[in-house]
UniProtKB/TrEMBL annotation:
This is Uu.00g013400.m01.CDS01. Pfam families: Ank. Keywords: ANK repeat. It comes from the Eukaryota. The keyword Isomerase does not apply. The lineage of its organism: Eukaryota, Fungi, Dikarya, Ascomycota, Pezizomycotina. ANK repeats lie at residues 98-130. The keyword Phosphoprotein does not apply.
């Protein structure tokens, strides 16, 4: 494939000039005499249609970044691109070609020197890649554990990519720190980026990002199944470091006491410890409270299900902003037992019941024993042993057939 053959397919004279410049000048910068005799160059163009559109020229610059070892060669190419076509450094996502932002290519390759150079020449540090509501797209470079089946249809699980995401997945902590230091828009970090960051041991970066990200995002919001379920699953499987979990707890303003009596902080909390796992809930006194904690489609968002005997990780799970409890309407649910033995579900309701029976509120506590075969997770059954009503007081009893489960709650078949 020669430059002229490719150019024959270009009708826009500006594009023709651009591609000729790419072939004659930029490629020669790499030390090649002619582009048509270079098999690697031909291969790099294979399957990439050259059309009269600015965005589709970018793959050539990617090739320069990927094949050049010295920064001077790449900088010459970058200057040529920027001079002829301003804005060409930002790139874009194009199906069929990896990341069309040169900055993300440099980050993925771990080339901190090129990253700094691109930023110096005006590359957009906040470049993000979004392709929502397209089931054909897959999240790149991500294991299936990051996309639980029950939430795989959510738009945020398609492609949400940023420069920080690239640094995290390339395991380039220095580049991540550079991006933050150079003014990365932390308020605009995509949710999957935050998931990936939780899995690292980069506590410093995590703290900086979390301080900006947590106050406004849906991380702690049970109305959005995307974030809370994923963080819960990841933490329960031990992927998140203890340091990061502690940092998340701190940023979320959570302060539970060791004895299991929760402080009067406004949050929805989950604490998992080995060998016995306990779930603590704070429910809102607002009339609409509890149904907003769990996604309406999934009644048992926070149940253990088949993961009952996993190595429970230290984890606290919060939602800020909704609940001003002032020490009231405290609900604690303790799960006792194992998959092979009956389980006792002790639920302590209204005005702060405590696990300690000597506590003055213990008279308001109650217990229900279920067999292991009755413990399940998944969509709410029509009837259940325990349901948390929308009223100001949580009650035990049989779920009605009038749709009370739609309010949200913990349902056991």
């Amino acid at each position: 494939m020669s430059c002229l053959v490719i150019a024959d397919h270009i009708t826009n004279p500006v594009d023709l000039f651009y591609f000729t410049l790419t072939c004659k000048d930029l490629w020669h910068l790499l030390g090649h005499r002619t582009c048509e005799k270079d098999a690697q160059f031909q291969q790099s163009l294979e399957g990439i249609p050259v059309l009269a559109h600015d965005d589709q020229r970018i793959p050539i610059l990617h090739h320069v970044i990927e094949t050049s070892r010295d920064i001077q060669t790449v900088e010459k190419a970058v200057k040529a691109f920027s001079k002829v076509f301003p804005g060409s450094l930002d790139g874009y996502w194009r199906e069929g070609f990896r990341y069309s932002a040169p900055l993300i290519t440099a980050i993925t390759l771990g080339r901190k020197d090129i990253v700094e150079m691109l930023l110096d020449h005006g590359a957009n540090i906040d470049i993000k890649v979004h392709s929502l509501n397209n089931p054909t797209h897959q999240r790149p470079h991500t294991s299936t554990t990051h996309t639980p089946p029950e939430v795989s249809g959510y738009p945020c699980y398609q492609i949400c990519y940023s420069t920080l995401t690239a640094a995290i997945r390339a395991d380039k902590k220095e580049i991540a720190e550079l991006l933050v230091a150079r003014g990365l828009d932390l308020d605009g970090i995509s949710t999957p980026t935050f998931y990936d960051l939780v899995d690292t041991d980069w506590t410093t970066v995590m703290r900086q990002v979390g301080a900006a990200y947590l106050p406004w995002t849906d991380v702690w919001d049970g109305r959005y199944g995307c974030t809370n379920r994923l963080l819960l699953r990841e933490a329960r499987k031990g992927r998140a470091s203890v340091a990061n979990i502690d940092m998340l707890v701190e940023l979320a303003g959570m302060a539970p006491r060791i004895d299991g009596i929760l402080d009067d902080k406004p949050y929805l909390g989950l604490k998992i410890n080995k060998p016995q796992c306990a779930i603590y809930f704070l429910r809102a006194k607002e009339a609409w409270g509890y149904d907003h904690m769990l996604s309406p489609e999934r009644c048992v968002d926070l149940s253990f299900g088949d993961d009952w005997n996993i190595e429970c990780s230290k984890y606290l799970y919060s939602r800020r902003g909704y609940y001003n409890l002032e020490g009231r309407d405290l609900l604690t649910i303790a799960l006792r037992g194992s998959p092979k033995t009956p389980r006792t579900i002790e639920f302590l309701v209204n005005n702060g019941c405590a696990l300690d029976q000597s506590h003055p509120w213990s008279a308001r506590c109650a217990a229900v024993t279920l067999s292991s075969s009755n413990f399940r997770s998944g969509p709410c059954p029509e009837r259940a042993v325990l349901v948390l009503q929308r009223s100001s007081v949580a009650t035990a009893g049989i779920c009605s057939d009038e749709g009370s489960l739609a309010l949200g709650g913990l349902c056991f078949a």
